[in-house]
Amino acid sequence: MTRSLPITAPAAEESPPAGPVESRSRRRSRRVTAHPVAGALFVLPFFLVVVAFLIVPLGYAFWLSLSSKSLATGVRFSGFDNYVRAFTDPLLLDGLLRVVLFGLVQIPIMLGIALAGALVLDAVTTKFALAFRLIAFMPYAVPAVVGALMWGFLYSRTFGPFADLPTLVGGDPIDFFSVSLLLVSLGNIVTWAWTGYNMIILYSALQGVPREMYEAAVIDGATPVQIALRVKVPAIKQAISLAAIFTVIGTMQFFTEPAIMARFAPQISAGYTPNLYAYNQAFAYSDFHYSAALSFALGFLVFVVAYAFVFVNRRRGGRK
Amino acid sequence: MPGTTWLAKLRAGLAACGLLAVAACGGASSDDGGPVKVSVWAWYPEFKGVVEAFNASHKDIQVEWTNVGTGPDQYAKLKTAFTAGKGAPDVAMVEFQQIPTFIILDALVDMGEHGANEDKGLYAEWAWSQATDGQKVYAIPVDGGPMALMYRKDLFDQHGIPVPTTWAEYADAAAKIKAADPNGHIASFGSDGGWINGLMWQSGCRPYGYSQATAKDQVKINLTAPECKRVFDLYGDLVEKGLMAKDPFFTADATAALDSGKYWTWAAAGWTPGYVAGSLKNTAGKWAVAPMPQWTAGADEQGDWGGSTFTVTKQAKNPKAATIVARELFGKSKPAWDIGLNKAFLYPLVKDVAADPAFTGKAYEFFNGQKVNEIFVPVSNKLGEFQYTPFQDFVFGELNDRSAEAMSGSRSWDSVLEETQKNVVAYAEQQGFKVSK
């Protein structure tokens, strides 16, 4: 019980009812009006960075996307032609479909494992748990390119330990780069890289849950499993949906792993994922205009999907 | 005030080089009265020595070399720099199949204006014709990739299988290899657009035609001619029967397979021996080179896979000095070719260097003392004209992707070229070209 006090105290302070927050921000805004120059100066560095590295490039890319470049005839202003072309481009649509299917399978699996891991870490308080936390987080520290290369070797029939496993029982060796297994192989890399990261997010959220709730549940006769599923999971719902949104956005931008794995797997075509397609349009086919349009269209879709996700989540939360 | 000088320098530097183009910073300039500095992007192996040799022999021009990545990695940076209008080097290494692409991007200087036409007789004719468009000289050839058949002489001898001289015999040999060793394959179908292109070239297929000097917006695409299709018929059949493996080239798996007796042959290029000799330790000395199998017995059709050139970019500050660099980095330079031949294992497109007995008579330990250049040199001499499209990345990408579909069984082999033709024509028309067959 000694642990509960320092943990609950900041948690209670950070998620108070709406009243104190409002009054605090009102107080702050009054201070800003008192020293407008100082306030502006504090914001300035961040503002400059945002303008230089976000607003200006975005504006430039959007401007690019409104022209078309054809190799033979050069650049001309074409309005939204590139967007019409993008949304009727079978290569882009194929890639989108592939990424959506990939996400529908991979995201629940990964977040499920991350949540289970976080719940176990929260329940077990041994030295082993600390070591496990570090080990689970480690893949996230490995650069995605290195991770993809490493898995390329692990999947290899010559060097990898897995491909020949079925031959021990008389089966055929596994081809991880075959069309039927390629998405599974990629999904495994992504899951490996990101599960630990999500686990830590969820674990940190669990740390913020007031311990009194567990005590109450124990007094009510709840089993550890019931506490985990009925008390802890609802308590960190916000963190779970945050992790889910980040993962959905990451999945829509799926690029590094397929780009690296293309060396091992010729089945990864130029339009395998939308982001890979946008990259190839720009840097292989020198069509920066269409690539900008693809990127913008993709960004718009990510925005819609992420917003829809938040919206649905909030509605569901509200109903409960 | 030292502070202002520092700031002024920084500001001048940023203005001259662009905030993000640090790598290309410091192009040709001689405003301080010193030698003209020419920036070069290239990824040749052992290139450092070549640069040093150039700088030692030129007082008024000094080369500043950067390796920004191999092939596609470098092209991505070049295309970005040309789109941005700054950041490109003065001289860039460019492969043959990419020259029309960079011409149509208006990225290359016509070195003919700076006297490069004098070099016409110096280089293999096929290479010079790919590097030029009429009197316009867009590139100076360096190395080529005449194709020949590498094979495991020990295994062929041991099993009494004759070395194929025609592609029909090649298919027979493939079946015999499978019978002799169930894990063996005659080779791998590497789904490499450039390699497939070389095989089609050797089959007499001339699928592309483009000349900016004649008509900027006209391109010929004919990938469905019988000479092109028979390549896919043969290789598709071998892959479907399991006689040919499917590993992509230049992966650890493919190299291990070459070095373990899993592959018995490789229709490879003049630069391949240099590339593989270092990584095939177990089988060194067991390989030999034979001329490419022919489609008609007794014929002498040849092809090329790869090869590269130096180009001068439109962003060069001193195109005249840059042209000298492009022409003389290798050119007739003896120290450069000593490195090129003996350390980097380039196949020289300089006729005198290729004809030199020191090159043709060179015995390779990797090939058990065989003088393999006696085979590669006549191949290069036999190569005729072959043109590329101004969007060759797209064509090679299509060839890769459609072949990969055939290898995975989701497309029939005889539809690979038809689909590629259809997609390439659609792309070309979308890019504003008039397409002829």
Automatic annotation (TrEMBL), chain A:
Low complexity bias locations: 9-22
Superkingdom: Bacteria
Main location as per UniProt: membrane
InterPro entries listed in its UniProt record: MetI-like (IPR000515), MetI-like_sf (IPR035906), UgpAE/MalFG_permease (IPR050809)
Membrane topology annotation: Multi-pass membrane protein
Region of interest (Disordered), ranges: 1-27
Key word Methyltransferase present: no
Family annotation (CDD domains): TM_PBP2 (cd06261)
Protein name per the record: Multiple sugar transport system permease protein
Organism: Saccharothrix ecbatanensis
TrEMBL record, chain B:
Keywords (A to Z) from UniProt: Signal, Sugar transport, Transport
InterPro entries, per database record: Bact_solute-bd_prot1, SBP
Extent of the signal sequence: 1-23
Pfam families in UniProt: SBP_bac_1
Keyword Signal: yes
Protein name: Multiple sugar transport system substrate-binding protein
Organism: Saccharothrix ecbatanensis
